[in-house]
Amino acid sequence: MTGQARPSRGGRTKSGKPRPGTGGYGKRRLEGKGPTPPAQMRPGHPAQRRAAASAVKGQNANASGGPGRGETGRSGTKSRGSGGGAEVVVGRNAVLESLRAGVPGVALHIGPRLDNDERIGEAVMLATDAGLPVVEAGRAELDRLTGDAVHQGIALRVRPYAYAHPDDLVARAAAAGEPALIVALDGVTDPRNLGAVARSVAAFGGHGVLVPARRSAGVTAGAWKASAGALARVPVAQASNLAAALVGYQEAGLFAVGLSSDADTQINATGLADGPLVLVVGSEGRGLSRLVAQRCDELARIPMPGAAESLNAGVAAGIALYEVARQRAPGG
């Protein structure tokens, strides 16, 4: 640097000569970044993470009556509880698929300055057509709403599902003047199976689905999508104890038939299909729990000439419901 003047912080060098300009390229360095946001709104700041966790916890408590934990799955949902609490669907594909499937929402939240994406436009149009409010939200607000999930600037708040009482399903059959036909799920944890079962119940004239309140699939956005809208017509009831609920059904005059691959009787040979019936379907692999199987009046199996070892709950329930409907039909 010998013989060359060092630029000062002003507009001139120490020798008094004007400092060379940048041609406008340094203009952005001179622009202010605005006021410093509060700590709880700075992404990555510990205060912001604490505020987001507190908001999620508070929203969960308001929706479900107590604390809970959520997890983001491949379907792009941020679930709180097993379907009875608040749920947020996140991500452009997941939100669009939910709106297309008619998942009942509370509001669609859109981030500012989104790129030109056809999915965003279609999501806004579908939400507007469904009468949902479209709310513009900042990134910090979306982060809090989704619990820091990868939301891609869009989130759909899903309305908590109002579960029926187990007795309501029997009353629904009585009001229709039909023998009750209910499907009870034992240990089925995939919401898509619950949605598929609801779709089969609607197709074959059933009166509802019964699920345990714990360790079981609930009515989430995934269940709504798998049901193809059937959950709007088929009520889902929750029981604190599935075995006790089956006893209550039996005292009301229903027969309980459990599906089991080890049963001697085939589902097409059961003599209970004509009367009030609750079909009990277990999870794939584990099947029915011991206590629930003991509560059933009869165990029946689906004949499978092929090499398949087991069927998932949605497929098994659909086959059994078809057989019951066939036997109940005139001349069946």
Strand proportion, as a percent range, falls in: 15-25%
Looking across the biggest beta sheet, what order are the strands in? 9-8-7-12-10-13-11
Coarse structural class: alpha/beta
- The percent range for helix content is 25-40%
Write the H/E string, N to C: HHEEEHEHEHEHEHEHEHEEEHEH
Query: Roughly how many Å apart are the termini?
Result: 102 Å
Folded structure, characterized:
With 332 residues, this protein is α/β, with parallel strands linked by helices. Helix content is 35%, strand content 17%. The chain is built from eleven helices and 13 strands. It has helices spanning 27-30, 46-64, 92-100, 118-129, 139-146, 166-176, 191-203, 221-227, 242-251, 290-295, 313-328; strands spanning 70-72, 77-80, 87-90, 105-110, 134-136, 154-158, 181-186, 208-212, 236-239, 255-259, 265-266, 277-282, 298-301. The strands form two sheets. Strands 9-8-7-12-10-13-11 form a seven-stranded parallel β-sheet, with helices on both faces. Strand 7, helix 7 (191-203) and strand 8 form a beta-alpha-beta unit. Helix 3 (92-100) runs parallel beside helix 4 and helix 7 packs parallel to helix 8 (221-227). Mean pLDDT is 80; it is low at 55-75 and 78-84.
Offer a few descriptive terms.
elongated, alpha/beta, 6-stranded mixed β-sheet, 7-stranded parallel β-sheet, single chain, 332 residues
